[in-house]
Amino acid sequence: MTAIIDKALVKQALKELIQEDPVTFKALLKEVLNESFLTANQEEDVEIEQLIYKNFDRYSATFKALA
What we know:
The protein is an all-alpha fold.
């Protein structure tokens, strides 16, 4: 089911929320930002982990010789 959101209506509702209950708005904003950053960080972590494993595989003979 797809909902069509009127952005002007949402904008007005957010403005009202900021004025009437700034604490709730701050909590909502923090939640959204944390979710966004976590997703970005998780993707970056996966890429870094893949790079590490790739390099360990690539230089495994060197690591074994050094050990």
